[in-house]
Amino acid sequence: MGEAVTALPCKPATAILQISEAGEPWLRGYRCAVCAAVVADPTLCCRACGSRVTPGAVRLSTRGKLFTWAMVYRSFPGVAVPFVSAIVDFDDGLTVKGTLRATDPEMLHAGMPVVAVFDDAGGARDADGAAYLGYHFEPVGGAAA
Amino acid sequence: MSDVYVVGADLIKFGRYPDRTPAQLGAEAALLALDDAGLTVHDLDVVYASSTFNAASMIAQQVLKQIGQTGVPCVNVSNACASGATAFREAFIGIKSGIYDVALVVGVEKNPKGLLGGPPAAGPSPEGLFGSGTTPAMFAEAGMVHAAAYGTTIEQFAQVAVKNHHHATMNPKAMYQIETPLDQVLASEMIAWPLTKLMCSANVDGAAATILVSERKAREMGLSRAARIIGSALASDPWQPRNPALLDADSVTRLAVAKAYEMAGLGPDDLDMVELHDCFATAEILHYENLGLCGEGMAGALIDSGETALGGRIPVNVSGGLLSKGHPIGATGVANIVEIVQHLRGEAGARQVDGARIGLAHVLGFSAIAGVCGVHILEKA
């Protein structure tokens, strides 16, 4: 599994991830100025209320709460198992799926606080050898595997 | 407006057909349904074909190239696991509008093998890096929400598989006819907790077809084996704050079934049988509540009661369901209507639901980012 990011530049492995000009990773959502719904991808109008005020990009907190999860024992060929596929409600209102690293999956419970930790996306490289930026979840207060 | 009737309904045995094309499978089902209705290809005014993976190749026209190129309008539908219900509903609308008298709906699929799911990615595959996009993981996550809220156990989810595999032993068209006791279901390979392999739908090829006719045509043919379509609804996934990170099987199903009940002028207590979208065992538990077959949080108790087994108060998936009959994706939404029709006629053999007069067929479709639900209610004519 990937280590925490220490060396940049690299490129985001998934759309929610962004890298600032200073090289700092952050999580991007889009918030509706009318109804405050937050979504992960850019839309023409708000998909929650239909407002034509285009939802604007916002920087999301990396903290949230575990809503639900599945312990995955069989995945696509070549993917290391088992792992926890977790669905997390960020404190800012966006819900995101990610892999949760926990030493003891038996201790997982709905509502437990978790944090998104930036990583190197499993050490993946693109065709030019450039590194990727990824994220995973860890329980707040440690106990990460 | 004209009532719409189903006068022909049949399917091929679900299984693996590596040496046959989707068009050949669809053509066989189409001929079975035409023969069942006592009609020929020359009687058809229109063809609606559903295939999640083959609609873009104009599967309806390909079926007509197998059984007779009469030049009638052809409509090709891809709408995930609700493709069949979508095609059926379009045929219903076409006949109800008065434009057509006789329509063929044919659903056909040759499924990709292995685990389905997961979006295409420009960078590294997201699978494992950012959770799992496989369909069993998605339905495991949704089942875990129910478990957290109501204490639903893995044994209760597993009993769905025990029941539906038992039902399939009485269905010669099912992929599997094998009893799977609870210990066997629990001991089979764990895919994504709480789903073991026997709690995941059988990934198969298949085809199913129905013939829909106007009231005028139905009366001309005789109503003795006809089923009247009294409810038809289709819904797309409505806004929910966790959508699409969390597969929301609930909102879209509740939207569709409320419309279908309203059109039919009845409710869940009036149903004699249900074929619902048990793509995974967790899904059947969720849909007991979504369809109103029990109260909120009571689905675990409902499966425990045996009331959804053949002989119970409201038999669910007596065909064997997607778990055991199999899930050829674009054919599934037609096949579960075929099952209802056979029971309303009293022609379902060993698995016949005694005295069935009203049945509901439900399908739920999802991609990584979007959802659909189709519901149809049929009544013995």
Structural summary, described in words:
The complex is a heterodimer of chains A (145) and B (381). Chain A has no helices and ten strands. Chain A has 145 residues and is mainly beta. Chain A has one domain (11-142). In chain A, a hairpin with a 5-residue loop joins β2 (17-19) and β3 (25-31). Chain A is globular. Chain B is built from twelve helices and eleven strands. Chain B has helices spanning 22-37, 59-67, 83-96, 135-150, 154-168, 182-187, 215-221, 249-264, 281-290, 299-305, 321-324, 329-344; strands at residues 4-11, 46-50, 74-77, 102-109, 190-192, 195-196, 206-214, 227-236, 273-275, 358-366, 371-380. In chain B, strands 3-2-4-7-1-8-11-10-9 form a nine-stranded mixed β-sheet, sandwiched between helices. Chain B has a two-stranded antiparallel ribbon with strand order 5-6. The mean pLDDT of chain B is 96. Classes of the chains: A mainly beta (145), B alpha/beta (381). Chain A binds chain B through residues 11-14, 37-38, 40, 47-48, 67-76, 79-81, 83-87, 89, 93, 95-100, 109-110, 121-122, 124, 126, 132, 134-136, and chain B through 114-115, 118, 121, 123-134, 136-137, 140-142, 144-145, 148, 189-193, 239, 241-242, 245-246.
Summarize the structure.
The complex is a heterodimer of chains A (145) and B (381). By secondary structure, chain A is an all-beta fold.
What secondary-structure arrangement, pairings included, does this model have?
The complex is a heterodimer of chains A (145) and B (381).
Chain A: E1 11-12, E2 17-19, E3 25-31, E4 38-39, E5 56-60, E6 63-72, E7 83-90, E8 95-100, E9 113-119, E10 132-139
Parallel strand pairs in A: 1-10
Antiparallel strand pairs in A: 2-3, 3-4, 3-5, 6-7, 6-9, 7-8, 9-10
Chain B: E1 4-11, H1 22-37, E2 46-50, H2 59-67, E3 74-77, H3 83-96, E4 102-109, H4 135-150, H5 154-168, H6 182-187, E5 190-192, E6 195-196, E7 206-214, H7 215-221, E8 227-236, H8 249-264, E9 273-275, H9 281-290, H10 299-305, H11 321-324, H12 329-344, E10 358-366, E11 371-380
Parallel strand pairs in B: 2-3, 2-4, 9-10
Antiparallel strand pairs in B: 1-7, 1-8, 4-7, 5-6, 8-11, 10-11
